């Protein structure tokens, strides 16, 4: 069990408050992932990744996340199941300079997929199954695939139960597997798109009471483009 949050801002007026909005969302997911946490923040200077071991509140305070601005961010709280509790094994995984992936769930065939990537010259640096999915998505995008098509390839090639949030410098995308047993909720207003594993992580966002709130349909890729 892990926690995912994400925020895609549509209006520049909110960009300075990105970190302010993101931190409470991440802290709300602490019970889903007490071992480590991380964020990827997108701004004019590109993508910045912050990952650390410990409680989300402490990590955000230590790295000044609340004061960060930008137009988009993803976050993750991790409950380690298949690999060590280390900063390297924390999410997000970033196979490309502007691509970040966070994952709740597990892939049963990740060892097979890791070997397949290895034959293509792509290596993983951790034992985390989520990194394998991230490297695979990165491979597809590098070969020219649109992000949505790359995520559909995950449905085709990976076995398991998962909710994925994947971002690039221009896109924000969400996908659940065919069984959709890993929770996810989306909220969209004229000002933002927000995603979390549980609704209470979204409850403090401005205007959320008027948002379109819904659960992603299984096997459907939801994308927003900047």
Keywords:
5 helices, globular, 7-stranded antiparallel β-sheet, about 230 residues, alpha+beta, 12 strands, 5-stranded antiparallel β-sheet
Describe the structure.
- With 226 residues, the protein is of the alpha+beta class.
- The protein is built from five helices and twelve strands.
- A hairpin with a 3-residue loop joins strand 7 (160-167) and strand 8 (171-176).
- It is globular and about 45 Å long.
- The chain starts with a strand and ends with a strand.
Brief description of this entry?
With 226 residues, the chain is an alpha+beta fold. Helices cover 24% and strands 32% of the residues.
* Uncertain segments: none
- Look at the structure and give the mean pLDDT: 96
Beta content: 25-35%
Order of helices and strands: EHEEHEEEHHHEEEEEE
Alpha carbon gyration radius: 16 Å
List the helices and strands and how they pair.
Layout: E1 3-9, H1 18-28, E2 36-43, E3 46-53, H2 56-63, E4 72-78, E5 93-96, E6 99-107, H3 110-119, H4 129-142, H5 147-157, E7 160-167, E8 171-176, E9 185-188, E10 192-196, E11 212-214, E12 222-225
Antiparallel strand pairs: 1-4, 1-10, 2-3, 2-4, 5-6, 6-7, 7-8, 8-12, 9-10, 9-11
């Amino acid at each position: 069990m892990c926690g995912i949050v994400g925020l895609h801002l549509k209006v520049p007026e909110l960009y300075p408050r990105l970190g302010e909005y993101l931190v409470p969302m991440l802290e709300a997911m602490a019970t889903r992932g007490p071992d480590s946490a991380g964020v990827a923040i997108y701004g004019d200077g590109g993508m910045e990744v912050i990952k650390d071991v410990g409680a989300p509140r402490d990590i955000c305070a230590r790295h000044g996340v609340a004061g960060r601005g930008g137009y988009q961010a993803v976050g993750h709280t991790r409950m380690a199941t298949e690999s060590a509790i280390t900063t390297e094994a924390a999410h997000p995984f970033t196979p490309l300079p502007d691509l970040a992936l966070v994952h709740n769930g597990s892939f049963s065939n990740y060892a097979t997929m890791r070997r397949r990537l290895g034959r293509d010259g792509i290596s993983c640096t951790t034992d985390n199954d989520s990194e394998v999915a991230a490297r695979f998505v990165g491979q597809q995008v590098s070969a020219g695939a649109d992000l949505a098509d790359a995520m559909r390839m995950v449905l085709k090639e990976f076995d398991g139960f998962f909710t994925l949030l994947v971002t690039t410098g221009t896109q924000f995308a969400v996908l659940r597997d065919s069984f959709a047993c890993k929770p996810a909720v989306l909220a969209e207003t004229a000002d933002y798109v927000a995603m979390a594993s549980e609704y209470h992580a979204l409850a403090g966002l401005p205007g959320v009471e008027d948002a379109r709130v819904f659960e992603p349909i299984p096997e459907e890729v939801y994308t927003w483009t900047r």
